[in-house]
């Protein structure tokens, strides 16, 4: 009993020791968070001096928080007081002797970059000296943590990505202040080269550069419709030019490709012209760029992808129009496989291009850092509704891929679908285009086509066994008919297996007997014509034999039911 009590005590000691060890491991994190949140010492970068050569910095409430600094800087910029605005910059990367001279110029350029290259998130800009983020959820690792370095935005130059930052500095014995980081100030000339006003803008009169509304200048209010008009004229000219070339080439392959490229080329001309004018002539403000950049990139990506796909589509359509009959022939088995595989690859390329285009738009526009992300997040429920509505389309797309890779129906195959003899002309995402023997087009939903039964007459072998039935009198001489049938088989070019062509009595009833005529054709199209000629020939042969028999009781070939009824009526 004593041993059990001792063992029980040892077990409890082990548990208590383990818990103490875990608490000790967690304690440093807790103490660090507490010290970071509640320490009386400010979280700053300690420096010996701030802009000693400039002689001016913001003070008091102008730079005690990141939001206050941004407000004071933008206000000084609106008043074009660049000397005062330079007090918001950490000029420590410059020699002390150059800070007073270059500070105002850097402030002017930084003000222009902030207006044009980024959109200020005033709601998310901390208004606390310690820059603690009080708006994020507790799942954010930075929630509730003081900061001394704050990134406002990330913008792309010609060769790299640059961040615009603020940091918190303190001189020994002084109050902590927020300034635009020295690294950001050092990058200002390069950023201004990329986002600053063009030479054309700088020559505008002052009243055009004056603010209008929604952070826009008057020249932007006037220029945006003009740029759109120029882009539309470029798109219209592209459309007209391609249409003229289409008339020149007609239905040939270049003409078909150009006709398919009209719309995407016009979109590309519109977006490209718009981008060039924005880059060379005008540089709009950040609020406008937030909306225009994703739209411009999206249009360019769509247009380039559409041009690429239009070429493939035109080639496939020309093949379908000019060779669909030839593809049904036995010797084109490999061609049917090739064009069906090419059609499947085309659909895969479309899906990949769509995904690639979405990725390019998201990356190039930094949508997660702009208004576009808010729009996407706000449309989340709408996206779910669209996804639910598009589930049938997604099912059709998977079904079309199934047809293409399983090759249950290939381009050029002859099939019987819903009682119609058709050629598979095109396999699309959601529909199959079937061409009937009389040149009608049946648009069959892919899901319906896959889920229902259909006959593929060229899946394994393009040759087709054709049957014809004749109802003859019981007294008909079948051997005489076989001789006529053998004569027809010898002279008929549409029969590929003459040795196995045969005539058989397959059934009979009170009215007569049924003869079945069997012959194999090399392909469905040839088989249909042969099938009709075979029936016509044998009916004519039976009529000749029947006429030669005269009125004697036997033999007789055509049924006598109508004549018997007339005779009975006369006797009655």
From TrEMBL:
GO CC terms in record: membrane
InterPro entries the record matches: LSM_dom_sf (IPR010920), MscS_beta-dom_sf (IPR023408), MscS_channel_2nd (IPR006685)
Subcellular location(s) per record: Membrane
GO molecular function, one term: mechanosensitive monoatomic ion channel activity
Domain of life (superkingdom): Bacteria
Transmembrane segments: 216-245, 257-277, 297-316, 344-365, 371-390
SUPFAM superfamilies assigned: Sm-like ribonucleoproteins
Gene3D superfamilies listed in its UniProt record: 1.10.287.1260, 2.30.30.60
Annotated keywords: Membrane, Transmembrane, Transmembrane helix
Domain Mechanosensitive ion channel MscS, first and last residues per copy: 393-459
Name of the protein this chain belongs to: Mechanosensitive ion channel MscS domain-containing protein
Organism: Croceicoccus pelagius
């Amino acid at each position: 009993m004593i041993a059990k009590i001792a063992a029980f005590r040892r077990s409890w000691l082990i548990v208590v020791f383990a818990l103490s060890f875990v608490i000790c491991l967690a304690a440093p994190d807790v103490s660090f968070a507490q010290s970071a949140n509640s320490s009386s010492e400010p979280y700053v970068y300690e420096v010996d001096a701030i802009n000693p050569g400039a002689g001016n910095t913001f003070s008091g409430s102008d730079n005690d928080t990141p939001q206050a600094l941004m407000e004071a800087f933008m206000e000084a910029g609106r008043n074009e007081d660049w000397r005062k605005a330079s007090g918001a910059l950490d000029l420590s990367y410059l020699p002390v002797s150059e800070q007073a001279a270059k500070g105002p110029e850097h402030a002017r350029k930084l003000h222009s970059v902030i207006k044009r290259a980024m959109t200020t998130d005033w709601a998310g800009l901390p208004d606390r000296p310690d820059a603690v983020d009080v708006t994020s959820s507790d799942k954010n690792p930075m929630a509730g943590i003081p900061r001394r370095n704050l990134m406002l935005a990330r913008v792309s130059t010609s060769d790299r990505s640059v961040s615009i930052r603020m940091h918190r500095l303190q001189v020994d014995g002084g109050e902590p202040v927020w300034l635009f980081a020295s690294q950001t100030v050092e990058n200002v000339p390069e950023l201004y080269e990329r986002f600053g006003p063009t030479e054309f803008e700088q020559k505008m009169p002052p009243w055009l550069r004056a603010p209008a509304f929604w952070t826009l200048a008057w020249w932007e209010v006037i220029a945006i419709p003009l740029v759109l008009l120029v882009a539309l004229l470029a798109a219209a000219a592209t459309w007209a030019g391609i249409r003229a070339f289409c008339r020149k080439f007609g239905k040939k392959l270049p003409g078909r490709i150009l006709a398919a490229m009209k719309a995407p080329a016009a979109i590309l001309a519109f977006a490209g012209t718009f981008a060039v004018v924005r880059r060379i002539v005008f540089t709009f403000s950040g609020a406008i760029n937030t909306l225009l950049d994703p739209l411009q990139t999206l249009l360019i990506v769509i247009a380039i992808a559409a041009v690429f796909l239009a070429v493939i589509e035109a080639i496939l359509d020309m093949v379908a129009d000019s060779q669909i009959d030839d593809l049904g022939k036995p010797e084109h088995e490999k061609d049917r496989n090739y064009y069906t595989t090419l059609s499947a690859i085309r659909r895969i390329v479309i899906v990949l291009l769509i995904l690639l285009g979405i990725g390019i738009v998201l990356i190039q526009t930094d949508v997660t850092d702009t208004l576009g992300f808010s729009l996407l997040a706000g449309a989340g429920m709408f996206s779910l509704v669209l996804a639910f509505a598009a589930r049938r389309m997604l099912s059709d797309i998977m079904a079309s891929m199934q047809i293409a890779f399983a090759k249950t129906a290939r381009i050029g195959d002859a099939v019987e679908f819903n009682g119609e003899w058709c050629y598979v002309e095109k396999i699309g995402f959601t529909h199959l285009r079937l061409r009937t023997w009389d040149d009608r087009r049946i648009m069959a939903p892919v899901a319906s086509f896959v889920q229902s039964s259909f006959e593929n007459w060229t899946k394994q072998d393009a040759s087709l066994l054709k049957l014809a039935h004749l109802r003859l009198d019981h007294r008909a001489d079948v051997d005489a008919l076989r001789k006529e049938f053998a004569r027809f088989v010898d002279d008929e070019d549409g029969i590929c297996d003459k040795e196995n062509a045969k005539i058989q009595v397959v059934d009979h009833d009170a009215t007569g007997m049924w003869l079945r005529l069997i012959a194999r054709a090399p392909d469905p199209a040839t088989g249909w014509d042969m099938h009709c000629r075979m029936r016509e020939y044998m009916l004519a042969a039976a009529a000749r034999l029947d006429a030669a028999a005269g009125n004697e009781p036997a033999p007789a070939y055509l049924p006598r039911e109508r004549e018997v009824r007339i005779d009975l009526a006369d006797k009655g």
